[in-house]
Predict the 3D structure of the following.
Amino acid sequence: MIWNQWYAVLPSTAIKSGKILAAKRMGLELAFFRNGKGNAACVEDKCSHRGAALSGGKVKGDCVMCPFHGLEFDNNGACRYVPSYGKSSVKDLSRYNVKRYIVREENSIIYLWYGDEDKVTDKLPFFHGFVDRSYVFSEVEDLWNSHYSRCIENQLDVVHVPIVHHNTIGRGNKTLINGPKVIFENGMLTTSANNEVDTGQKPKPADECVIKDTYLNFIFPNIWMNHISKKIKVIIYFAPVDEENTILYIRFYHRITGNGIADRAIAFAGKYANLIIERQDKRVVVTQKPKSSSLKGGEKLLTGDGPIIAYRRMREELKGLGNTGK
Ligand code: FES
Ligand SMILES: [Fe+2]
């Protein structure tokens, strides 16, 4: 994991008011809930008293109440009540505080700050300017037994398309890989496939390729977009569960008809079409060894792996900026 980053970790809809959601992210056992105002909150899913899972408790006003002895913690993890000490207790309860994690909610996504609290930034990674309220989206999730770096690399991999997806999006036997061109600007990676049928020609180098109308974007640490057309986009955020598992949240965005009911039906079908494509990838990606990718992992890369190399370099650089992870 890269330290000091906002990770997209859950869809907003996963945290229901009045309920506590247990979820493992970045190897951390977490309890998500909404306080009385509906604001999302996250604390370590372990009571400071005697270690019970807070997610087994209940939401009470602005707090979560531990199911064991009833200690209550607010959205900052501060202990607000110890039943056995009574309501009139004036004791300082701060020794019972639990660790909280900073979360924000935007774009119908819950983001978690994985880093030092004094380094929190305001910029949540998203594709602002590419999708807005004129788009309808529908989302589906899929758990992969893979490190999130492998899942992301797969989405930037133009070489696998005619092989893995030979009967779907990679139809046409375009196995010869030109480039591809890779741009990394303003924190966003851009690339597009430029594949051709092999008729004996030499592949073109990246600098002779262009970014096509259908292209890919990626923003660190874990959000990707496929610009299929002006009206159709697919966004995936790759929520790291731990070092070996990732949940892909696949969103199909579009504005094909402009009619709300029809567009919602299309989005609903579109997400499953994308899930079928992703399942073709999953079958192979879960077998990759080692589980996590790295810049100097000893793999014998191909010229067409340019976007993957760019991703690895940038990941390494971000980790090197004191963001070594935990
Ligand atoms: S373990 Fe949570 S209140 Fe005792
Ligand atoms: Fe694929």
